[in-house]
Amino acid sequence: MIDHFGFPVRDYRHSRAFYDRVLAPLGYSVQKEVTREMTGSSAHCGYGADGRPQFWIGDGDTREGSFHIAFAAKDRKAVDAFYAAALAAGARDNGAPGIRAHYHPNYYAAFVLDPDGHNIEAVCHLPG
Question: Which InterPro entries match (predicted)?
Fold first, then answer.
């Protein structure tokens, strides 16, 4: 259903460094960067895998409020590594790694708040 999505961040360089660290354990990295010189207005980069950017951040006017996004993890160890990397990168805890059986018996996830206060999740749906 969704091809890609993005949102503006308050501090592009800081958020870029944050997402570089926290998405690496999940196998995602910057697949494309677009500079201010290229656009004439804003810089942004897209994270993903295999040359396909699907999650974009960029400088610009941020919006009020926060949102939630969940990134797919290949296994539970990747969820744990995401959580550890996020905390080391300055994220605030919003739910340590563990089973969330109210979603389904194998829903293993961790939640953190990014530099802009958004609820960022890594989730694995496979049995342990």
Answer: Glyas_Bleomycin-R_OHBP_Dase (IPR029068), Glyas_Fos-R_dOase_dom (IPR004360), VOC_core (IPR037523)
Q: What would you report as the CA-atom Rg of the chain, rounded to the nearest whole angstrom? A: 15
**Distance of alpha carbon 72 from its chain centroid, rounded?**
10
- Cβ atoms of residues 97 and 80 within 8 Å: yes
What ranges do the domains of the chain cover? 5-124
Q: What are the backbone angles phi and psi of residue 109, rounded to the nearest 5°?
A: -145, 165
Please state which of the four CATH numbers 3.40.50.1820, 3.10.180.10, 2.60.40.10, 3.30.565.10 is assigned to the domain occupying 5-124.
Answer: 3.10.180.10
Q: What's the N-to-C CA distance of the chain in angstroms?
A: 28
CA 8 to the chain's CA centroid: 13
Taking only the tens place, the pLDDT of each residue in 76-116 is 999 999 999 999 999 999 999 999 999 999 999 999 999 99
Is residue 53 a contact partner of residue 2, using CB atoms and an 8 Å limit?
Answer: no
- pLDDT tens profile 56-83: 999 988 888 889 999 999 999 999 999 9
